[in-house]
Amino acid sequence: MTEQLYEWMAPQQPSDALEEYLTERAPALEHLCSDMADHGFNPSRVLEGTIDSVAPVWE
Question: pLDDT 10s per residue in the chain (59 long)?
């Protein structure tokens, strides 16, 4: 799906975009946690929900 504003989407497109996001979220998070563990980070400690917690990921 190409990026566009929700206001410009046909009625079914926002629902489809949300479904695509929800489908991709769990595998993407698992991949991120696996990569972090491979680089010596404890994902459950690092990804604790604050903005500062993602700084090591961006580095």
Answer: 567 787 888 888 888 988 999 999 999 999 989 998 998 988 888 888 788 877 777 77
In the structure encoding, which two tokens stand for residue 12, read together? Answer: 């079914």
Q: How far apart are CA 47 and CA 1, in angstroms?
A: 28
Query: Cβ neighbours of residue 13 under 8 Å, at least 6 residues apart?
Result: 1, 6
Distance (Å, whole) CA 49 – CA 6: 26
- Can you read off the two tokens belonging to residue 14? 């926002």
CB 54 within 8 A of CB 36: no
